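[09:14] KT: can someone run the structure on this one? pasting the chain below
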Amino acid sequence: MSTIMKQDFGTTHDGRAVALYHIRNSRGTTLSVCTYGGAVQSLKTKAKNGAFVDVVLGYGDAGTYEKEDKFIGALIGRCGNRIAKGRFSLNGKDYQLECNDGANHLHGGTWTGFHKKLWQGEITKDGLKLTYTSPDGEGGYPGTMEVTVWYDVTESNAVTIRYQAVCDADTVCNLTNHTYFNLNGYDSGTILNHTIQLFADAYTESDAESLPDGKIIPVDGTPMDLRQPTPIGAHIDDDFDQLNWGHGYDHNWVIRWAPCNPPVADWTGKGLSKMAQAVGDTTGITLTAYTSQPGVQFYTGNYLDGKPLGKDGVPFLRRQGFCLEAQYFPNAMAHPSFDQPILRKGDIWKAETVYQFGTTEE
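[09:31] RB: done, structure tokens below
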């Protein structure tokens, strides 16, 4: 069972206290999560040489999390990813959300998204419990939503994120996590020499605004074919419309659903499927990811620009981290053929993502 310790992590601009929780297993693997944005701030795990390496991008104080605009480490909601023109219809009613990504809505909004909320933390037998109540109309979404997220670290070095939400009205719900991983260490430069493998035979084709057009395209014969371990940098700059428009990988892959024996018991009742595996080329640290969700956004930090400075004054530059965001497909409300991220009044929505760490020598 993990042990959890709490420390002060500064205050918000309006004086609210922010806490940083450290979740540690008996092997020394330690996950640190701050209550501002529910952000994963640090994750230290052993490399093949036995040294502990911090493998996620993060910031050194609450004030910097308040300023940053790249969703680093954060919990994302109510709806992860993009919604075209910030508009959706539900039960015959039209809703207008903030357009904070050009002409579109992204990750819940600039300040109304869950990444800019102060969550309540509690140490429990199931790990760190974070809670937030999103009031009716926040960000333009209908209904008051009660959200609970648990973080934990198992004895087998699996980081678990378990999500639960309930709402007093029909609403949209697509919660995810936006941690940027660098398995060579957050201060080690680009992730282009990491290898990545996605357990997906197709992706959702996107337009120049990174909005899926409703088509599900086989990866065969394209730079999107990451079914075998492939250096991230091998094809990231190929002359291919999807990559040109996204400035690299920033797309949703359709997970090849294959219920497996994950490193933790399934909590959702949906089952868990393997979605990705990555390896740091210098540390030998491995990351195998599982989820109950149908899609994964593989994003290679194409818009990181070094501002604000990260932990220990390190600038997080372009392609210094990658994300594996388990999700419903982007802009799903506009495409009825996609699984719909609709949470009905009174229903309990659950999702789970697991990041299993190890080394190439295990």
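[09:33] KT: thanks! The chain is about 5% helix and 40% strand.
[09:34] RB: yep, looked fine to me
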